Structure formats: structure tokens, C-alpha cells
TrEMBL record:
It comes from the Bacteria. It comes from Streptosporangium roseum (strain ATCC 12428 / DSM 43021 / JCM 3005 / KCTC 9067 / NCIMB 10171 / NRRL 2505 / NI 9100). Residues 195-314 form the DUF7064 domain. This is DUF7064 domain-containing protein.
Length: 322
């Protein structure tokens, strides 16, 4: 039986793997993230399904990146809400998300006929809702399963949980088939989330000794014990408080490096391949969402790969980035 770490402020259980009743806020949403990374960082990707029942839409993002690969990106912010279950059908794609064993395994499939191919990934932020690929497309297919490693970590102050995982299956892009085995994380959250107000950093990865880590810091105007956990090589999940991060941004506003103060394991996160998106609010505000496959370098010499995101709503430079 998978252990659910006793840290949350609500009674998290297996039923929480399903869809929750919507609150009354227009921007109430439910989010399912699944990311994956080969152990050597050669190929990686992520999928996010966001449900917005009071806005009458879903967001579906899927991408593939890697060493010497262009970004392949499907970003649909006007997808129809799924019917029963989490199956999504959009123009030129269909996808399924299935909890095969609550808190233990999760399977994802995607068949997309025309994902954008971006030699310059920043084009994905230039025209939200447009055609960032400029007509260059390819097919993209995922058939992947996430298996829990070390247990389930609920946040202590919002309805959200994170699960470190082994990931395996098959990826197809264009005429290439990639048998995949690697690692990643999946998370699930629900509640009101205004993407156009608060900036944040989120990071998760696995080091070469088998240690998983996760940390998150939002820029809310005051400090607090930001959530963090590690999973040791022998599978022990350990909650730690006091995560923080300091980021160096380029002139274009995109991150060049972050120093992650993971308690007991300080490290740097260096972007290797970006998979950004942009999103437009109901009132027309635009937020950028740089997300990247990163190489992690711990001060004690350990190395690894995973994903980091630096969310940038309007006015983000004044939000207290460190």
C-alpha cells in the first residue's frame, strides 16, 4: 500500500484522485500535471490538463523536448471540457488520463496529428492562442504510465498533492518511435487559481544517486515555510520546510539559472530545453509560463534532471523574485 504522507490540512484519500465538485469562482480550476525525463536528460516532456468548469473550457498542453531536438508543442486553451472521466478531444488530437490504481499508477495516452514544431521555443509565448509553429507541424503520440515511488505528498495549506514516479512506455514523434523509461512527477490540485496575479517557482527532479526532490515558492509578498520534500534512494519520503530559490533572468525576462535552497541539498537548476506557453485571462491579460527541462547540480557533486517552471503574470518583475 502506498503511504500518504501525513502533512496536509485536509484528509487526503484515494477518492481525491478523481474530479472534485467545482467551487463558485469563475477561475476555479482542477489541474493534472504529468512530467517525465530520461535519466540522462536526452528526452523529456510534460502534459497538463486544466479543467475550468465555470469558464466552460479546458486547457490541454503536451510537449516533447530533448538534447538536439526542437520543441514539439500542443497547447489548446479552448479545449472542450471532458465528459465522464478525463478523456479530451480537440482539433487534431485526442487524449486520455486514467487512474489505473489510486495513488499508485496513472496512465496517459495522446494521439495528436499536428503538434507545432518550434526551433525557437519562445514563439510559443509571442501569440497566445495563435499558431506559434508558423505552419510547421508533426504527429505526437504518448502511451506512458506513472508508478509511484516513495509515497504521496500533500501540501499543508492548499488542496494539492505531488507524487514522485517511475515513468515508462512509448513515445512517437513524426516517424520516430522512442521506447521510454525514466522518472518524473505527477501532481493534482483544485481550487481558485488566478494565473494573472501571482508569480512562482516550482521545481522537481531526480539526482543520480536516486534521490527525488520537490520544492515550490510563490511570490505573495511575505516569506513562509515553503513546501519541500525529498525521497531517499531507499524510498523514504521526507518533508522539509524552508525551501526558497533565487533566479537570474536574462534581458528577455527568461530564466538563465536558479539556485534552489533545498534543505540539506542546495543545488542549481540550469535550463536545458524550454517548453513555454502563454495564457490569456477572461479580461485579456497575458501571462507567460516558462517551463524547462533542467540539469540539476547539487553542491555535494550529485547531478540529475527534471523540470522547473517560473510563472510570469503581468507585472511579475515587481512580485519579489529572488
Amino acid at each position: 500500500m502506498v503511504k500518504i504522507f501525513d502533512h496536509g490540512t485536509w484528509p487526503l484519500g484515494e477518492a481525491d484522485e478523481g474530479v472534485h465538485p467545482a467551487g463558485g469562482e469563475r477561475l476555479w480550476s482542477e489541474s493534472f500535471y504529468l512530467d517525465f525525463t530520461a535519466e540522462d536528460g536526452s528526452v523529456a516532456g510534460y502534459v497538463r490538463l486544466g479543467l475550468y468548469p465555470n469558464w466552460d473550457r479546458a486547457w490541454y498542453w503536451a510537449c516533447l523536448v530533448g538534447r538536439d531536438r526542437p520543441l514539439v508543442l500542443l497547447a489548446d486553451d479552448r479545449a472542450p471540457l471532458p465528459g465522464p472521466g478525463l478523456a479530451v478531444r480537440g482539433r487534431d488530437y485526442r487524449a486520455t488520463q486514467e487512474v489505473t490504481a489510486p495513488m499508485r499508477s496513472f496512465r496517459l495516452t495522446l494521439e495528436a496529428g499536428a503538434a507545432a514544431v518550434l526551433e525557437d521555443p519562445w514563439r510559443a509565448c509571442a501569440d497566445p492562442g495563435g499558431d506559434p509553429g508558423g505552419g510547421a507541424t508533426t504527429s505526437l503520440e504518448f502511451d506512458l504510465e506513472w508508478e509511484t515511488v516513495g509515497g504521496v505528498y500533500p501540501y499543508g495549506f492548499i488542496p494539492r498533492y505531488e507524487i514522485p514516479c517511475r515513468v515508462g512506455g512509448v513515445i512517437r514523434v513524426g516517424g520516430e518511435e522512442i521506447p521510454f523509461f525514466g522518472y518524473g512527477e505527477r501532481d493534482h490540485s483544485w481550487g481558485e487559481r488566478d494565473w494573472w496575479k501571482v508569480s512562482w517557482l516550482w521545481s522537481s527532479g531526480r539526482l543520480d544517486d536516486g534521490t527525488f526532490f520537490h520544492g515550490m515558492r510563490a511570490n505573495v509578498g511575505f516569506e513562509m515555510p515553503w513546501p519541500c520534500f525529498t525521497v531517499s534512494p531507499d524510498g523514504l519520503l521526507d518533508h522539509r520546510e524552508g525551501f526558497t530559490a533565487a533566479t537570474e533572468f536574462g534581458e528577455d525576462g527568461f530564466p538563465a539559472l536558479s539556485r534552489l535552497a533545498v534543505p540539506g541539498s542546495p543545488m542549481t537548476a540550469v535550463p536545458v530545453a524550454f517548453a513555454p506557453v502563454a495564457m490569456t485571462s477572461p479580461d485579456g491579460a497575458v501571462a507567460r509560463f516558462p517551463r524547462a527541462l533542467c540539469r540539476f547540480e547539487a553542491e555535494d557533486g550529485r547531478r540529475g534532471y527534471g523540470w522547473t517552471e517560473w510563472h510570469q503574470p503581468p507585472g511579475w518583475r515587481e512580485h519579489g523574485w529572488r
